[in-house]
Amino acid sequence: MKNEEMLAVLKALSNETRLNILLWLSDPDLMNKELPNTIKVEFPGGVCVASIQEKAGLAQSVISTYLSSMQKIGLLESRRYGQWTYYRRNEQAIEHFLADFAAGMQARKI
Predict the structure, then answer these.
(1) Right CATH for 3-102 from 3.50.80.10, 1.10.3720.10, 1.10.10.60, 1.10.10.10
(2) Signal sequence: where (predicted)?
(3) pTM score, two decimals?
(4) Cα–Cα dist 110/85, whole Å
(5) What whole-number distance in Å separates Cα of residue 84 and Cα of residue 98?
């Protein structure tokens, strides 16, 4: 992973709400159980934007911007069903980032 890509991930996660979203999405079953207002879709691990927005307590436009930025850098995947958009963690990309970050820190003795 290039330095600018790592910086983009670190910048995204420096915002408490974006970090919380990533953490909340690590247990999508709990998110969907806590906020059962969404339809069930064939997107394993997906959580509706409305559920994320409700849990965060922020405006839908703010949450959508956060989710979109996290998707652009590869932390999230999305799927649209009619008027609803569902997001889930991109576990492969997250693991790749963590491995590269750890390797970089080890190589630089930070």
Answers:
(1) 1.10.10.10
(2) none
(3) 0.85
(4) 39
(5) 30
Residues in the chain with pLDDT < 50? none
- Which residue is it, tokens 């930070």? 110
Could you tell me the residue ranges of all domains in the chain? Answer: 3-102
> Which pLDDT tens digit goes with each residue over 67-98?
999 999 999 999 998 888 999 999 999 999 99
Alpha carbon 85 to chain centroid distance?
A: 13
Query: Exposed, middle or buried by CB within 10 Å (0-12, 13-18, 19+), for 48?
Result: buried
Residue pair 104/96 in contact (Cβ under 8 Å)? The answer is: no
